[in-house]
Amino acid sequence: MKVVFLGTNGWYDTDTGNTICTLITTPEAVIILDAGYGLAKLDRFLKPGDARPVFLFLSHFHLDHIAGLHTLTKFLLGGGLTICCPAGGRDVLQTFVNAPFTVPLEGLPYPVRMLELPGEAASLPFPVQALPLLHSGLTLGYRLEIGAKVIAYCPDTGYCENAVILARGADLLITECAYKEGQSSESWPHLNPETAGRIAREARALRLALTHFDARIYRSLPERMEAQTAARKEFPAAFAACDDMILEC
């Protein structure tokens, strides 16, 4: 299994990276976590017509997590695309991925189906747990069981028990890290590095990847290294992701 961080920024693109998108490839399937502008780089890693089915998991509908959907027209996904999203997502996406904004889903050169989670998770070919996180609106975190590996994904959240549940014993926990050490906000819940580390430690995950660095707060890659240092005080196996980083699992 290969994990590629296509986009690691939150909010907007800068010289440090594109908005959030993570690619997971296995021999049987392609999995994408959120669809920020990092999604536009998907064709660097997939050959046109690749026959593997593609599964895109959207955590919520803030623009930095879905803006890349308008680049779906550039890909040739031979195995089709399944978009997994929170309840109500069909209506949201039929509006956003449609005229006059972009090419509608029905106009893409490959079949697309949508699943609303957790209710329709049984339609997926691998076990997926979806739980709500602590954010300004409905946001799902995911636990994916892919072969013998478990990947947990907790974007855009404050500390909450569901994040710990999803990450329990995970081979890799991917969390956001919008705030710097010591920063927090009850009205706009996000993680700082030490709280992300706390979740990984309490869940006894094996590794922790920090991503979704707020572009206004983290203006350089060295600042991400400061976050990595802070997270390692709580969880030594933490690392700060950057665009185009590739991880073998």
What is the overall pLDDT average? 97
**Secondary structure category:** alpha/beta
**Global Rg:** 17 Å
Helix content: 10-25%
Euclidean distance between termini CA atoms: 5 Å
Assess the beta-strand content as a share of residues: 25-35%
Count the strands? Answer: 15
CATH architectural label: 4-Layer Sandwich
Enumerate the spans where pLDDT stays under 50 for 5 or more consecutive residues.
Answer: none
| Largest beta-sheet details | 7 strands, mixed
Number of domains: 1
Shape: globular
> Looking at CATH, which topology would you report?
Metallo-beta-lactamase, Chain A
Write up this protein.
With 249 residues, the protein is of the alpha/beta class. It has one domain: Ribonuclease Z/Hydroxyacylglutathione hydrolase-like (Metallo-beta-lactamase, Chain A, 4-Layer Sandwich). Helix content is 18%, strand content 28%. The protein has five helices and 15 strands. The chain has helices at 63-66, 89-96, 161-167, 193-203, 221-234, and strands at 2-7, 9-10, 21-25, 30-33, 54-57, 81-86, 112-117, 128-132, 140-146, 149-154, 172-176, 208-211, 213-214, 238-240, 245-248. The protein is globular.
Compile the SSE list and pairings.
Elements: E1 2-7, E2 9-10, E3 21-25, E4 30-33, E5 54-57, H1 63-66, E6 81-86, H2 89-96, E7 112-117, E8 128-132, E9 140-146, E10 149-154, H3 161-167, E11 172-176, H4 193-203, E12 208-211, E13 213-214, H5 221-234, E14 238-240, E15 245-248
